[in-house]
Design goal:
This protein has 339 residues and is an alpha+beta fold. The strands form 5 sheets. It has a 6-stranded mixed β-sheet with strand order 8-17-12-9-11-10. Strands 1, 2, 7, 13 and 16 form a 5-stranded mixed β-sheet that branches. Helix 1 runs antiparallel to helix 2 and helix 1 packs across helix 7.
């Protein structure tokens, strides 16, 4: 049982509406009259409820497949994804300069900047140094699971906690795929030359220079937590860098994410990436056994039913395609590195 919500540019709905929808769908066991009542009673915005009820089938049930009734409830999802710009490198890119395209659509873009000339009126205008690339941005799904006790889930005051867990889960699962996918065959790949200020400055300069060829780029640094801890004690002359969340390093946006490997820093020109996003889908599982491990091997399973808990699965449909050399990678920036 699940509900899907399409995304539109409208981001005016209240931020917690996405948690209200997830909670309602899970406790109401799909899109049911009970789910609608739960969403409304938890304080959903009038805008959201108006859209849901406008599509509701008298007597309950569906009008177009699971999630069809919520397909117009796009403002909460767009606002939800927009709020993740400080948690997710992919979503920061999507909202800050990526070439946005519908999924499963062939995108044609310039892989190098065109060079124009000045000519007299009526003369042909030649354009040189321009290469076009056409690639299809396929649909991918970042699937994450949030577990909560049924007692806590039934308590509407837990919406804030559910919202935060959904944010972290969606951001991490999307970034794990995104950063791995775009880092294949980077423009530059270097190993950290040391953890002293001079070495760090040269290494960061090398990464930025590799993706900044015209000055029109939109650059972000994706930084592993252990590397961020080192960079937090480094004097970049600006004092804006934070070892958590979104900040700036040498004036460049920098986001700390566990989706990179240990000691990794990735410089990304997001204008060289085509990307799109569609839906967030929720489903529930109360008779599921899970292994509480970051490296599961199928042993030591825990029954959610026995724990009186529910697993909320969030599936985020998105896609991306790098269409030019817009990524540079540094590895080895750890406390055990050279100094």
């Amino acid at each position: 049982m699940r509900a899907a919500i399409a995304i539109s540019p409208d981001e005016t709905a209240r931020r917690l509406d996405i948690a209200r929808i997830a909670r309602g769908v899970v406790l109401g066991e799909g899109y049911t009259r009970e789910a609608v009542n739960l969403i409304e009673k938890s304080g959903a915005s009038r805008q959201l409820m108006g859209r849901i009820k406008a599509n509701e089938v008298p007597g309950g049930g569906t009008s177009g497949g699971w999630g069809g009734e919520l397909s117009n409830a796009d403002s909460p999802v767009a606002a939800f994804l927009g709020s993740l710009q400080s948690r997710s490198v992919f979503l920061w890119a999507l909202f800050n300069g990526a070439f946005r395209v519908p999924l499963n659509t062939r995108a044609v873009a310039a892989t190098t900047a065109p060079t124009a000339t000045i000519v007299d009126a009526g003369d042909p205008a030649p354009v040189s140094a321009m290469v076009l690339a056409g690639q299809t941005v396929g649909r991918r799904k970042a699937v994450s699971i949030v577990g909560m006790s049924n007692e806590l889930l039934r308590d509407a005051s837990s919406l804030g906690s559910l919202q935060r867990e959904l944010e972290k889960a969606v951001a991490r699962s999307a970034d794990a795929d995104f950063l791995t996918g775009i880092s294949t065959s980077p423009a530059v790949s270097i190993v950290s030359s040391g953890v002293d200020d001079a070495s760090i400055k040269i290494d960061i300069q090398t990464l930025i220079a590799a993706v900044n060829s015209t000055g029109d780029e939109t650059i972000i640094l994706a930084i592993a937590p252990d590397a961020a801890s080192i960079l937090a004690t480094h004097d970049d002359g600006h004092g804006e860098f934070s070892p958590t969340g979104l900040s700036r390093l040498y004036g460049v946006p920098a986001l700390v994410t566990a989706a990179t490997g240990s000691g990794v820093v990735v410089a990304i020109d997001v204008s060289g990436i085509a990307a799109g996003a569609e839906t967030v889908e929720f489903s529930r599982g109360s008779e599921t056994s899970i292994q509480m491990s970051s490296a599961p091997d199928g042993t030591a399973l825990t029954s959610l039913f026995a724990m009186d808990a529910t697993a909320i699965k969030a599936a985020f449909s998105f896609g991306y395609q790098r269409f030019r050399s817009s990524v540079a990678v540094m590895t080895g920036l750890t406390s055990g590195g050279s100094s």
